[in-house]
Amino acid sequence: MSKIGIIGGGNMGTAILAGIGRKYAVAVCEQDVRRAGSLKRRFGAKVADLATVASGSSIIILAVKPQNFEEVLGALRWYVRPDQLIVSIAAGITCRYIEQRLGKKIRVVRTMPNLPAQVGEAVTGICRGKFATTADIKTAQQIFNCIGKTVVVEERLMDAITAVSGSGPGYIFYFTECLEKAARSLGLKPGLSRVLVAQTLKGSVRLLEQSGEGADVLRARVTSKGGTTQAALDVFYKNGVENVFVQALKAACKRSSKLSK
User: Fold this and answer.
1) Which CATH superfamily is domain 168-259 in?
2) Span 3-158: which CATH code?
3) CA distance 27 to 128
4) Neighbouring residues of 115: CB distance < 8 A, sequence distance ≥ 6
5) What digits encode the pLDDT tens for the residues 198-224?
6) What are phi and psi for residue 83, nearest 5 degrees?
7) Distance of alpha carbon 239 from alpha carbon 110, whole angstroms
């Protein structure tokens, strides 16, 4: 069984721990004493300092925020070995950046999971660095398949992955907010609006997954000529909603690129 060390026990680190804890031996390094205690109680995880976690793990998952990466890499470089696999989940941190900071021809795999990891429904983009192997990619897939689904891409596409799925939950939540507010404007109470919108989203996504048909096909199926759905969609078309999505994702992708190291 591979020994995995997770550096950082925040929201995503906790989600990963929850998903892989039964399959792998996991140790966690978390500086916040209360959070570290919570992880130990909830998951029975071994909690230790960075040196202990790094030295005793064959796979090290870096689950710290981008702004803390430089400090963590500076400390980690004294403990990592060429036989270890380093897996990063930080947005905008390139494989090359990590490789240069750690040296020793360290094997690096870069990933981009998203927030639904907290309920085991993430989608994670995965790419490999200069020294990582095909086996390393498969290992990363096995780990992140524990919290959802994975896709393997070239690193040049990671900014796009960040814009689409990394930030995607934010767009979905915003759309949900808007739909709930619109429902309330029709006289529906907040609680009822939330139930109607949430279940409609849930059911529609499940239908999309299980039908095997494209969203365009399903959209056409629910849209009768001259009907209520058509009336609403005509407003979306008139206001260029499709172009808004294109521009929004381009903005997110551009921002991801600017933040990259």
Assistant:
1) ProC C-terminal domain-like (1.10.3730.10)
2) 3.40.50.720
3) 23
4) 11, 122, 169
5) 999 999 999 999 999 999 999 999 999
6) -85, 0
7) 38
